[in-house]
Write a structure and sequence with these properties.
With about 280 residues, the chain is an alpha/beta fold. The chain has 9 helices and 10 strands. About 35% of the residues lie in helices and about 20% in strands. Strands 1, 2, 3, 4, 5, 6, 7, 8, 9 and 10 form a 10-stranded mixed beta sheet that branches. The radius of gyration is 17 Å and the shape is globular.
């Protein structure tokens, strides 16, 4: 069954890279696309990304996309390009006030400390990324968020946007590549985004992490092992995450890529194909 798949990520090589997530996002989508799926990616437009070098094009209907945050309405513009040497379309969300001055460290200041507004920065990215779908008149069967920086999209999709007909049928997959959390998350952030904290189903406190919240509400959780990180092992050793995963109706799926080769990515795409089809078939 051919699917429309929307993948959110804070980093995609070669545009921006701080972890193996960027390598994953560069290499896997073309192989998924070979299975006749319509797959599209979206990431923030950081100031250091050259529009000329990567041929980022403005799209008239993707201007002034609105998202409410607290009592304000924030607007962003989206540009379009392709992952180099592929036919995979990638959108860039342009929010200059939040991403223009971000360094190549992405989530940290130059002194190595996490940016204080990471939660708001990537929360807005997630919310406007979902609103972009309406402007595209494109309804994906599956939305995939990767790690904490786009995990808010899962929470929004399942606990806010699901009330809207446009998003009601879309499934949400949280793909975890690490347990590193570089955002200070509190229940107040849910209020800022318009989500009722009581709808999450967890006892929330200042120690609750965004990945824990997203893992609790996602239709499916995928643990991605890479050459550097055994995510399955980390999830078992992480007290908070393991508790959340144990409370789900089904165990998370575990997928692995052991080397950066075409054969390895093809095998991973085959593994992912099974997860995608099983997820869309869920009641």
């Amino acid at each position: 069954m051919a699917l429309k798949i929307y993948m959110l990520s804070a980093e995609i090589a070669p545009f921006a890279q701080q972890s193996q997530l960027a390598t994953f996002m560069n290499n896997l989508p073309p192989y998924i696309q070979e299975n006749d799926h319509d797959i599209r990616l979206i990431m923030p437009k950081y100031g250091f990304i050259s529009s000329r070098k990567y041929v980022l094009r403005e799209v008239i209907r993707l201007r002034d996309i609105e998202a409410k945050w607290r009592t304000e309405v924030i607007t962003g513009n989206v540009r379009s390009a392709f992952v180099p040497e592929t036919k995979v379309q990638v959108y860039f969300l342009d929010l200059p006030a939040y991403f223009e001055d971000v360094s190549h460290l992405l989530y940290k200041a130059k002194n190595g400390r996490p940016l204080k507004d990471n939660t708001e920065r990537f929360g807005l990215f997630s919310k406007i990324a979902l609103r972009t779908l309406e402007k595209l008149f494109w309804q994906p069967e599956v939305v995939i968020a990767n790690d904490w920086a786009s995990a808010f999209a899962i929470v929004l999709q399942k606990r806010l946007f699901a009330r809207e007909e446009f998003f009601a049928e879309s499934k949400a997959i949280l793909a975890l590549h690490s347990v590193e959390e570089l955002a200070s998350f509190t229940p107040d952030v849910l209020f800022d985004a318009g989500v009722d904290p009581d709808s999450i189903g967890l006892d929330l406190d200042d120690d609750t992490r965004l990945i824990d919240v997203a893992a609790a509400v996602a239709d499916e959780v995928v643990l991605v092992n890479s050459p550097e990180i055994n995510m399955e092992k980390l999830a078992k050793e992480d007290e908070q995450l393991s508790e959340v995963l144990a409370g789900r109706d089904s165990a998370p799926k575990v997928l692995s890529w052991e080397e950066d080769t075409g054969e390895a990515w093809g095998n991973l795409a085959d593994q992912f194909e099974i997860v995608l089809q099983e997820t869309v078939e869920q009641e």
